[in-house]
Amino acid sequence: MHSLQCALQVQRSLRWGPMASVSWLSLRMCTAHSSLSSTTCPNPERQEDGARKDFSSRLATGPTLQHFLRSASAPQEKLSSEMEDPPPYLMKDELLGSQRKVYLETYGCQMNVNDTEIAWSILQKSGYLRTSNLQEADVILLVTCSIREKAEQTIWNRLHQLKVLKTRRLRSRVPLRIGILGCMAERLKEEILNREKMVDVLAGPDAYRDLPRLLAVAESGQQAANVLLSLDETYADVMPVQTSPSATSAFVSIMRGCDNMCTYCIVPFTRGRERSRPVASILEEVRKLSEQVLQLIHERENICKQIHLPAQSGSSRVLEAMRRGYSREAYVELVHHIRESIPGVSLSSDFIAGFCGETEEDHVQTVSLLREVQYNMGFLFAYSMRQKTRAYHRLKDDVPEEVKLRRLEELITVFREEATKANQTSVGCTQLVLVEGLSKRSATDLCGRNDGNLKVIFPDAEMEDVNNPGHRVRAQPGDYVLVQITSASSQTLKGHVLCRTTLKDSSAYC
């Protein structure tokens, strides 16, 4: 087998997530961490140096990323924005929103934010209007999360609150319609329809195209649901409509679903199998974003020196039970490689406290991983058993709730201690910050993000403008400013602003 093929097999055998795959591929060609037999990757120790040199030379002389992007974008099909034909039991005008107002609430992960933008894009083309006022809404749609029991309980509580509003509107000429979208609709369709008769519409993550029809059916007084999952990319030709047009950043989704089937995770059952968007579709969405973003990609190798690298546990035994596909040792080696490749990189991670069968020793190993890696950001949760998962069918949720919560508190405490240490290395440094807007905690401070995606707080004060010497300005959202860091906590950096600058001019100061 060719060395490059062997490298791809190693990467696949470890089953890193999409983000980590590239890093792992560049880390090793044929290593002892591989699950491949000697017949698949013969004599790895003797061939490793040669394989690395061969692969490096191919990277140097082979086609570039731009080559593939140009090739992929050439045969792109024209993206259709026309409304699909209605089903035989509906007239075409019944699919139209007729200026009805939609109120959208988003819960959970960034994918749900993107799903909200997709759903709104579809409804907007059907003639619906968007409102931020709950009281004037004709349709209320909740984009839901099902990753943990607490996330679902939040939605049940919200439905209880909305029941009062819907009851008041029963006698209205325009009755209120309520819909549940996303993962919770997919996972709990029958329970929602039976338990909450006030819910009119259910749409799973792959059914947002069907929202106009579902809402039309709901207008007749019937409950309407579509939770069918697709094996193909569902929204390649749907251009998301940003919910905050003035935002200084945007997420571009390139894939949906997951094939990894970790024992604790409900995602493959709520979002389906992994599938990717066509490159042409991704490029079309990026072209709609600010030209400054394209210029930034051209000028800088890394737009943001931040990588999210979910660990979930520091115990190899627990990682095996989770079917994560890697050991603690392999994970730590990848961390070292990333930090060698990207000096000053900011790392974030996910951790689960109290997974099935987790012992105190396993917990101690997770604590030690937090101390060893010293993450800048973290997302830590107590384990919540999910129906349909492998863990639900094969493992016991045998860690008492009070033990889960105690371990979670210990992980949070250690994370904050280590994140504070990591972030304090920035004190005294001058950093380039992208201004996002006013701080949520102070009307006299501004908030922004540095190159590691860390939050930076600084006073809203006049400053010099590098491009206009002698001219003093105040920072606006979307501006780049230089901030000298004066203090740091586990979550935030603070400092005082020096001047407004540009990406091009900032390198002379940072």
List keywords for this structure.
single chain, 510 residues, alpha/beta, 4 domains, 6-stranded parallel beta sheet, 18 strands, globular, Methylthiotransferase_CS
Structure description:
This protein is an alpha/beta fold. It folds into four domains: 3-62, no CATH class; 92-289, Methylthiotransferase, N-terminal domain (Rossmann fold), CATH 3.40.50.12160; 300-424, Transcription Regulator spoIIAA (2-Layer Sandwich); 430-506, Nucleic acid-binding proteins (OB fold (Dihydrolipoamide Acetyltransferase, E2P)), CATH 2.40.50. 38% of the residues lie in helices and 18% in strands. The protein contains 18 helices and 18 strands. It has helices at residues 3-14, 18-27, 44-61, 65-73, 110-125, 149-168, 183-187, 189-195, 211-218, 267-271, 279-287, 291-299, 316-322, 328-341, 360-373, 390-394, 401-424, 503-506, and strands at 101-106, 129-130, 139-144, 177-182, 201-203, 224-226, 255-256, 275-276, 306-308, 346-353, 377-382, 430-438, 445-449, 455-459, 463-465, 468-473, 480-488, 492-501. The strands form four sheets. It has a six-stranded parallel β-sheet with strand order 2-1-3-4-5-6, with helices on both faces. Strands 12-13-14-18-17 form a five-stranded mixed beta barrel. α15 (360-373) runs parallel beside α17 (401-424). The longest helix has 24 residues, at 401-424. The protein is globular, with a radius of gyration of 25 Å. It starts with a helix and ends with a helix.
